[in-house]
Design brief:
alpha+beta, Glutaredoxin, Glutathione S-transferase Yfyf (Class Pi), Chain A, domain 2, 2 domains, about 55% helix, globular, binds glutathione, prostaglandin biosynthesis, cytoplasm
Length: about 200
């Protein structure tokens, strides 16, 4: 098995989807955490200067979703057919477009709070409605079994619900999907064991 080294900050953030995929596949990996204070000196040494990165036997992959898609293919949860894979990618990109709206790095707390409140109050309902329609009465977002789109919904909604606990109260099917993902034994064990961080 290759040596996998995932490098990120001590946060769930953009690395958590890959940690779910490692947990699900049971593959061993090095979960390397960088202290924020050390980042300015490390940044110039990282190709493209952003985290996360995944090293696979020394080959560096950047971009969190490229990393996760690679791990999902390896784990057999990328979608069973090219069509399913396209749908999985589309859902992941839709959720990611939404998560990227938040000014995560904003230092001014007033500006940050205003922007977060606006997105959670005015923009989230549209995403939830569309995701709920897409899910319908299916067990999983795409196909007959779990994919990394379901994982991405769980990872992202965990952060969203920590910001606004009643966010999805009108969407019991989306909440039940979270329960199904979190009931997968490997995911349940990871959630139990992972460091408790705000994001
Ligand atoms: N689209 C990229 C975004 C990467 C990104 O912006 N990473 C942030 C942390 S979530 C980062 O490295 N920030 C530090 C910096 O830009 O110096 C991905 O998904 O990996």
């Amino acid at each position: 098995m290759p040596h996998y080294k995932l490098t990120y900050f001590n946060l769930r953030g953009r690395a958590e989807i890959s940690r779910y995929l490692f947990a699900y596949s049971g593959k061993q990996y090095e979960d390397h955490k960088i202290e924020a204070a050390d980042w300015p000196k490390i940044k110039p040494t990282i190709p493209f200067g952003k985290l996360p990165i995944l090293e696979v036997d020394g080959v560096i992959i950047h971009q969190s979703l490229a990393i996760a898609r690679y791990l999902a293919r390896e784990a057999g949860v990328a979608g069973r057919t090219p069509l399913e894979q396209a749908l999985v990618d589309a859902i992941v990109d839709t959720i990611d477009d939404f998560m990227t709206l938040f000014p995560w790095a904003e230092k001014n707390q007033d500006v940050r709070k205003k922007a977060f409140d606006d997105i959670l109050t005015n923009k989230a309902p549209e995403l939830l409605k569309d995701l709920d329609t897409f899910l319908g009465n299916k067990n999983w977002l795409v196909g007959e079994s779990v994919t990394w789109a379901d994982f991405y919904w769980d990872v992202s909604s965990t952060t969203l619900l920590s910001l606004k606990p009643d966010l999805a109260e009108n969407y019991p099917r989306l909440l039940a999907l979270r329960d199904r993902v979190q009931a997968l034994p490997a995911i349940a064990a990871w959630i139990q064991k992972r460091p408790k961080t705000v994001m």
